[in-house]
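retry 2 of 3: previous attempt timed out while embedding dinuclear copper ion. Reduced batch size to 1 and resubmitted. Inputs unchanged:
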Amino acid sequence: MAAGCGNSDNQSIFDTKGPVASTELYTTMITLWVSVGIFVVVGSALVFALVRFRAPADLGPETPLPSQSHGNAALEAVLTLVSICLLVIIAWPTIPAIFKLDAMPTAEEKPVIIEAKGWQWWWEFTYLNTKKKVYVGNEMHIPVGRKILLRLESSDVIHSFWVPKLGGKTDVIPNQHNQMWLLADQKGVYYGQCAEYCGTSHANMRFKVVAGDADDFEKWIMHQDSAAVDPPAGSLAARGKEIFIKGPKEGQACSSCHMIKGTPAAGIVGPNLTHVGSRLNLASGILDNNDHDLKMWLHDPGAVKPGNHMATMAMPPLHLSDDEVNALAAYLEMLK
Ligand code: CUA
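retry 2 succeeded.
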C-alpha cells in the first residue's frame, strides 16, 4: 500500500503533469481527508465504547445495562446534519470538476485530435487534424500546453485508456465513441497503461506519451509521414526486407499484418513499423528498443507477450532461424 503512494513512480497519480490529472488529484485528496476524519472519529468512539462499557467479569443477571441513547432526537439530528455537511464538502469541488473535465475542447482551442484505438494488446494512434494524417503504434507524441482531444475506439474487446500523470481512465468500448481530453504542461515521457482486463496480455498493453514543444511535434509528424529508408542492395538488411515482405515461409509474410510506408508492406492489423527503429520501446512498451530485445521478440513473441497474435493467429508459428532473425533485426533497426 505504501509503495503505491510513491511520487517518483512512473505511473503515480500523485505526481501530476497536467490540469486534468491535477484536478482529479485535488478532488481525490478532499475525499481522502474527509474519509480519514470520519475514520478517526468513528474509530475513536468505537475504541472508547469498547473500553469504557466493557462488561464486568462477574456479570450476573441483575447487572443493569448502561444508559441507552436510542431515540435521542437531538443526537440523531446532529449526526444527520454532520453527514450532510461532509457530503457538501466533497460535492462542492467535485461537481465543478466533473463539468470541467467533461467539456471537450472547442475548435477555437485548436486541440490536436487523435484517435486512440485499442487492440489486443497494443495501441494505435491516428492523428486526425495534423498537417499530415499519420498513424503510429504504441507511442503518442503531443505538443506541450495544447489540449489533446482523444477519440477512443476499440477493434476488439473493452480496454481502458490511462496515462496516470496526465489524467484518469476512460473505457475504450467497441462500437461506442468515447472521448476524453488531456494536456501536458511540461515536457516529458509519460507512461500509459490499459486499465481494463482485456485478455491474457492485458498487463503488457502499455504505451508511452512523449510531450515536446510545438516544433518537435511538427517535425515528428512530418517524419512519421515520410517513407521508410531503403537498405543498400546486397546488405543483411536488404535480405531482412525481403523476408519481411515475402515471409520466411509461404503464408507468413510480416507485410500481411504490418505496414512499412514506401514498401509493398501495407498490412493494417498490426502496428505500423515504418519508423519502428526510432521508437522508445518495442511490443507496446514492454521491451526496450535495442538489438537484444528485438531479437528476443523475433525468436519467440509468444514468450515475451503471451497470447499475442504473432504467436497465435491462424498462421503457422514463425520459428525463425538465427539467420532470419539477424536479417530482420538489421532491417527493422535501420527504420529510424
Ligand atoms: Cu487492453 Cu487491458
